[in-house]
Amino acid sequence: MSRKAIIAGNWKMNNTIAETKALVNELIPLVKDAQCDVVICTPYTDLATAVELTKGTNIKVGAENVHWAEKGAFTGEISAKMLVELGVEYVIIGHSERRQYFGETDETVNARTKAALAAGLKPIVCVGETLEERESGKVEEVLVRQTKGAFAGIDKEELENIVIAYEPVWAIGTGKTATAEVANETIAIIRKTMAELYCPKCAENRVRIQYGGSMNPKNVKELMAMPEIDGGLIGGASLKAVDFSQVVNF
Ligand code: 13P
């Protein structure tokens, strides 16, 4: 199996520039020997600082969203080209908070993913079911729809440049982690969907799928021991250097 683990922090709407400087400087020595890919995704206003401070280190920087158009009359939006020029490498797309509060749909997720890839960014595409969907037995239906929607029209050659994050909405910021078994079997559904969309070998060797939702230093080992789980997208625990480094150095 040739999938390298990838642990990414999603800072969400946290950290000013001054706070970014402090956190990144504390983090750099703590994660320098990490065996996995290490990414921090920050608010737009912190990106330039994060990129500057992490130059020459093993930490990559990502944004938390990107618009689908190249440029134009989209007040308040940021294009992929703008991120690339800043030195940003990754971008989170379709996080459940964006789906829930900002009207993100499978179509906009797909459009943003295509724009990010076209500009040379690596999308971290988020999928995941709500509690209601899980309790009514719709997990597979929801994940297949979200995965097919996100990847519509995306070429097989791009798979190495995309990461999928499976984030059950009920596990985000709640302290409730999916058990390692549930996370593993649900990610297997996503991988099966990718096998159908592309090919079994592509899904097995070239698609990295993270788990996200209350992942922390205490549960990281158990989650990362699961064969389907290739990494984590970390919210709360990514805001503390020691906690995040313990996740990264699982
Ligand atoms: P928490 O780790 O705070 O649950 O957040 C997960 C998440 O939404 C990462 O994108």
Compact overview of the structure:
With 250 residues, the chain is an alpha/beta fold. It has eleven helices and eight strands.
Characterise the protein shown here.
The chain has a single domain, classed as Aldolase class I (TIM Barrel), CATH 3.20.20.70. With 250 residues, it is an alpha/beta fold. The longest helix is centred in the last third of the chain and has 18 residues, at 180-197. Strand 1 (6-10), helix 1 (17-31) and strand 2 form a beta-alpha-beta unit. It contains eleven helices and eight strands. The mean pLDDT is 97. The two termini are 19 Å apart. The chain has an eight-stranded parallel barrel, surrounded by six helices. The protein is 44% helix and 15% strand. It binds 1,3-dihydroxyacetonephosphate.
Quaternary form: single chain
Which CATH class? Answer: Alpha Beta
Instruction: Compute the average pLDDT.
Output: 97
Shape, please?
Answer: globular
| Beta-strand proportion | 15-25%
Ends apart, CA distance between termini: 19 Å
Number of domains as seen in the coordinates: 1
- Contiguous low-pLDDT stretches (5 residues minimum) are none
Small molecules (ligands, ions, cofactors) in the structure: 1,3-dihydroxyacetonephosphate
Count every helix, treating DSSP H or I runs of 4 or more residues as helices: 11
Largest sheet: 8 strands, parallel, barrel
Structural class: alpha/beta
CATH superfamily heading: Aldolase class I
Descriptors:
44% helix; single chain; alpha/beta; binds 1,3-dihydroxyacetonephosphate; 250 residues; TIM Barrel; eight-stranded parallel barrel
